[in-house]
TrEMBL record, chain A:
Pfam families named in the record: F-box
Gene3D superfamilies per the UniProt record, alphabetical: 1.20.1280.50, Ribonuclease Inhibitor (3.80.10.10)
Transmembrane segments: none
Protein name from the UniProt record: F-box domain-containing protein
UniProt cross-references to InterPro entries, sorted A to Z: F-box-like_dom_sf, F-box_dom, LRR_dom_sf
Source organism (scientific name): Guillardia theta (strain CCMP2712) (Cryptophyte)
All copies of domain F-box, residue ranges: 66-102
Region (Disordered), start-end ranges: 16-44
Domain of life: Eukaryota
TrEMBL record, chain B:
SUPFAM superfamilies: POZ domain, Skp1 dimerisation domain-like
Record protein name field: SKP1-like protein
Signal peptide coordinates: none
Coiled-coil intervals: none
Domain SKP1 component dimerisation stretches: 108-156
Alphabetized InterPro entries for the sequence: SKP1, SKP1-like, SKP1-like_dim_sf, SKP1/BTB/POZ_sf, Skp1_comp_dimer, Skp1_comp_POZ
Database matches in Gene3D superfamilies: Potassium Channel Kv1.1, Chain A
Organism: Guillardia theta (strain CCMP2712)
SMART domains listed in its UniProt record: Skp1 (SM00512)
Annotated metabolic or biological route of this protein: Protein modification; protein ubiquitination
GO terms of biological process kind: protein ubiquitination; ubiquitin-dependent protein catabolic process
Residue spans crossing the bilayer: none
Lineage of source species: Eukaryota, Cryptophyceae, Pyrenomonadales, Geminigeraceae, Guillardia
SKP1 component POZ domain segment(s): 7-68
Length: 539, 162
């Protein structure tokens, strides 16, 4: 269905090629010196009839002439889903896609790219047979059969892996990690949210001598197990999740001074520490005094440190680019730190993670005033329940380099749960990625935080909202008065009610593109939108 | 600087001469090889590929100079990305010719950058039909073959398969 009314309103459904083809530059003169025989599968420039209309004449489709290794190179960055779409285009593209899959060394898989079953992943990995890096970019748990498929396919080749695994034991053998440890070529292992037991760490140390980086939620290993890892993996430069109070977590483990553990880790340039239940002022001193001056990334999780200690640490770790202060046990701990931060602290900081920290309004205001705000490109604050609306938006205003923002909201943050005019926008809309609402269960009740790309502060364009952003309702999009372009992709459940609200409020919509699944209700909603828009402009 | 970095003269395919510093020229592996082969920096380096016209070479050199500057000043990724993004925004013809030139001259970053632009164009297309329209490609599949290609990745077409 395609309809065009008025001078500026067009509604495209499933097909937006007409709008796009205007980007092509018509060919002005005949090309005499170039032979266009590059690709036998592509039509020569000629007049084509599309939908009963003559759409173009004398146009050279330059990109259609790409072939061979250049097309392979082009396909290398496509996701499995996009690659599969491309392989349906024509025979030569199918072969080229197959070739480029074989040459792909790095693959990112999202939740919707492929079911995480042994069979499906097995066939996917047969096509992507020379992967060196595999990243599962979701917060969803990888089942054991998926890990088995991975270790089976890539036991001799994978260098880098990212995913989320869960083991139900904190001690002894962990099946999923034992599977991963079979991949002897591993260099970088990122298991956010995962706990690694001492036994697993030793297993990894035994089988993966090339490890450079291990990043996980928590490592419950004793001093001697860490020493073993250190001994077996000389290249290790990044380690996070190290729990410094293992004796509290595990029975039969003797208390070990934190300085003993830290002294082994002194050559790391990225370090993450967990310290639960206990406060040991020595730790910060240790970090400051040991040769941690190389540290570019520091994560302190569940650590309760005095403000002076943290500030002293900042004075020593001048290269710090990434700082994470998570789950502090003293409310407002990060707060005090920010309010006392001098302008010489943290000169290189680019990424700040205040995940689950209870930062107050005053802390955020202090951060907004600090020079570091200018350079921050990434900010995560998962708990804003103490922040006021004005402070938060003032902060957004001073974060001029921000390109990544991730905000989760506690239930009792009324200013973020109100109507969507409070929606969060990146001040630097042009390079802004998007707001990613935490999928953690604690925030499941938040259903009306908007996810968007935007220009300036007035939203004018929303493109391709993926169904994974389940928190957006199209009805709310209607409340953005400047919205001119909207593209929705595979919208899962578009209700007629939402569509009606949207249609009645989006006064400036010029282009609306929608690709939909087949459900009848969705189609009804689309007709509703289409009808509302055309009616208004006709009038 | 000028002693250590003499000027190299390139001759484009359409017979124009361009002078650029050697340090810039040698960012192309192929020009580097040609200079080393002759061993004489004063010799004109002919660019024999059809894509290497004056227009395209000026763009390629702009890219090389800018990236040399980024490397020397240790520029932020954001600055580099912004330049790259702007550099990508060109007509299809220039994108195509730049890809050919980058391939011929063996400039890996530039080739990847421009190929990525084409990949982005493919990504914008939501269906194989859209891709055929955008790239003007004839569908040479029989209906049976289409089914076969689809069968190779069943979950991609059936949302409920998961």
């Amino acid at each position: 269905m395609e309809g065009t009314t008025g001078d500026c309103t067009s509604i495209h459904i499933k097909r937006s090629s007409v709008a796009r083809s205007s980007q092509l530059r018509p060919r002005a003169q005949t090309n005499s010196q170039r032979d266009n025989s590059a690709s036998g599968d592509c039509e020569r420039p000629l007049e084509r009839l599309k939908g009963g209309r003559l759409t173009c004449s004398k146009r050279v489709f330059w990109l259609a002439q790409l072939n061979g290794e250049l097309l392979v190179q082009t396909f290398l960055t496509l996701s499995p889903r996009e690659a599969s779409r491309a392989s349906q285009v024509c025979r030569s593209w199918q072969q080229t896609v197959r070739m480029s899959c074989r040459l792909t060394s790095r693959l990112e898989l999202g939740q919707y790219d492929c079911p995480w079953r042994r069979k499906n992943l097995g066939s996917l990995f047969k096509r992507y047979c020379s992967l060196e890096e595999l990243h599962f970019c979701t917060e969803f748990l990888l089942p054991l059969e998926a890990v088995q498929a991975i270790s089976k396919a890539f036991s001799q080749s994978l260098r880098s892996f990212t995913g989320f695994l869960i083991s139900n034991c904190v001690e002894g053998k962990q099946v999923a990690i034992s599977e991963l440890a079979k991949i002897s070529t591993l260099e970088s292992l990122t298991l956010e949210g995962t706990l690694i037991s001492g036994h697993s760490l030793v297993e990894l140390a035994d089988n993966c001598p090339n490890l450079r980086s291990v990043c996980c939620h928590e490592i419950l290993a004793t001093h001697s197990q860490l020493a073993y890892l250190w001994d077996r993996c000389p290249n290790l430069s990044s380690l996070s999740g190290v729990n410094l109070s293992v004796h509290n977590e595990l029975d039969g483990v003797a208390r070990e001074p934190a300085s003993l553990i830290l002294s082994q880790l002194s050559s790391l340039n990225s370090l993450g520490l967990n310290l639960f239940t206990e406060y040991d002022p020595q730790i910060l001193d240790c970090i400051s005094k040991l040769s941690f001056s190389n540290l570019t990334s520091l994560r302190l999780r569940a650590c309760t440190f005095p403000t002076e200690g943290v500030l002293n640490l900042f004075t020593h770790c001048t290269r710090l680019e990434s700082l994470s202060l998570v789950a502090s046990e003293i409310p407002g701990c990060a707060d005090e730190v920010f309010r006392n931060l001098s302008s010489s602290h943290l000169p290189c900081l680019k990424s700040l993670d205040l995940d689950e920290d209870q930062i107050s309004d005053r802390g955020l205001a202090a951060l907004a005033r600090h020079p570091v705000a200018m350079h921050l490109t990434a900010l995560e604050c998962l708990d804003l329940k103490n922040a006021s609306r004005s402070t938060f938006f003032a902060l957004m205003g001073s974060l001029s380099s921000l390109s990544r923002l991730r905000v989760g909201v506690a239930r009792n943050t009324p200013w973020l749960q109100g109507p969507s005019k409070d929606c969060l926008m990146l001040p630097n809309g042009s390079c802004g990625e998007f707001l990613d609402v935490s999928k953690r269960t604690a925030f499941d009740s938040v259903d009306n935080l908007a996810v968007c790309w935007c220009d300036d502060f007035g939203l004018t364009e929303v493109e391709e909202i993926q169904p994974r952003c389940k928190y957006v309702r199209i009805g709310q999009l209607g409340e953005w008065p400047n919205l001119s372009h909207l593209e929705l992709c595979d919208w899962p459940a578009l209700s007629s009610m939402d569509a009606a609200i949207f249609a009645s409020r989006s006064r400036k919509i010029k282009r609306f593109t929608l690709s939909l699944p087949h459900e009848l209700s969705s189609n009804r909603a689309v007709f509703f939108v289409a009808a509302s828009l055309t009616n208004r402009f006709d009038r | 600087m000028s002693e250590a970095d003499p000027e190299i003269t390139l001759e484009t395919y359409d017979k124009h001469q361009i002078k650029i510093p050697k340090s810039i020229a040698t960012r192309s592996a192929i020009i580097n090889m040609m200079i080393e082969d002759t061993g004489d920096v004063n010799e004109v380096v002919p660019l024999a590929d059809k894509s290497c016209t004056l227009n395209i070479m000026n763009r390629v050199i702009e890219y090389l100079k800018k990236h040399a500057e980024f490397d020397n000043t240790g520029a932020d990724d954001e600055v580099i990305n912004e330049f790259d993004k702007e550099f990508q925004e060109q007509s299809d013809e220039i994108i195509f010719q730049t890809i050919l030139a980058a391939n011929f001259l063996d400039i890996k970053n530039l080739l990847e950058l421009m190929c990525k632009k084409v990949a982005d164009e493919i990504k914008k297309c939501k269906t194989p039909d859209d891709i055929r329209d955008r790239f003007n490609i004839r569908k040479d599949y029989t209906p049976e073959e289409v089914e076969e290609v689809k069968r190779a990745h069943p979950w991609i077409y059936d949302k409920n398969a998961k």
